[in-house]
Amino acid sequence: MTESQSTNSKRDLVFAADLGGTNLRAATVDRCGTLVARVKQPTPHSARDAGEIVRAIAAAANECRKISEKTHQVIQGASVVVPGTVDISGETVIAAPNLSCLDNFRLADALRSELRLPVLLENDANAACVGEMWLGAARGFRNVLCVTLGTGVGGGLILNGELFRGTDGSAGEIGHTTVDPFSGVKCKCGNTGCLEVFASATAIVRMAHEQLSKYPSTELKSGELTARSVYEAGMRGDELSLAVLKKMGTYLGIGLANLVNLLNPEIIVIGGGVAAGWQLFEKHMHQEVAARAFAVAARVKIVRAECGDDAGILGAAHLALQK
Q1: Helix ranges restricted to H, the chain
Q2: Alpha-carbon distance 172 to 137, whole Å?
Q3: What does the pLDDT look like over 171-215, one tens digit per residue?
Q4: Residues facing 304 on adjacent strands
Q5: Which domains does the chain have, with CATH numbers?
Q6: Are 206 and 223 a contacting pair, CB within 8 Å?
Q7: CA–CA separation, 280 and 195 (whole Å)
Q8: pTM for this model (two decimals)
Q9: How far is 162 from 140, CA to CA, in rounded Å?
Q10: Cα(127)–Cα(200) distance, rounded to whole angstroms?
Q11: pLDDT tens across 88-99, in order?
């Protein structure tokens, strides 16, 4: 790269937004993966339509734009990732179980009108997978499975070095694969027994609530439960917390074993906020994969993500910069 090209790579930016079920994270990113400006705010949940979410993303973009313009850097385009299925053209959110106001909404069009920029739309877990392959735990690998454990459970697939979206854009919906059809626990997608109802932050809180009466000495209290409080109590040896995270890791391992047998990936990267509990569920996850996956496929590496909360933003930016 010449000096001129290097300078341009740092001056040209994309705006990348990661719309989660809990938080909206956004940044401007250059071609080297440097996050120039950052914004984080709660995801709007009060709107009955998608307008409030569009306005929130636009406001984040304007804030990032103001910061970036101080250093004479120009935003060339935008990339937004959402926690749901995106159609293969990258225009419409088909279904977002945790943000149902976006179902069948042409989010890319709405954002183009607001931002006056080219806009790329992508699934959040797909973007996180790209981010980890670009600058994270999956660098150097060509067959990658990423699982994001957050408010829900998402998944992204990179096969032979290319992001795999499937026929209609819905490939990688790992959270909505069935791991226990007889559990009776209903998922927001409408099905029962999905991996998401056992391995997400929401699931951890629900399972802890369900078991509170069986553990009278637990330090967990009904009104204060969060996935983080369960993990932190588990680190202190709380029996209820350890039981919940064992169950969570067991179901996660069942889901991963099925995917290992189907796809034979080189590496599985586990990210999202729930991955903070890695020490408490890792053993149970690995036990299930070892027991259920074919021996040749079970050689897969299973590791924690390295990009943290930035994985989706970095992946979104990389996809936009490629275009």
Answers
A1: 3-11, 51-69, 107-115, 124-135, 196-199, 201-211, 227-235, 239-263, 278-292, 311-322
A2: 19
A3: 999 999 999 999 999 998 899 999 999 999 999 999 999 999 999
A4: 270
A5: 3-130+310-322 (3.30.420.40), 138-305 (3.30.420.40)
A6: no
A7: 18
A8: 0.88
A9: 13
A10: 19
A11: 889 999 998 888
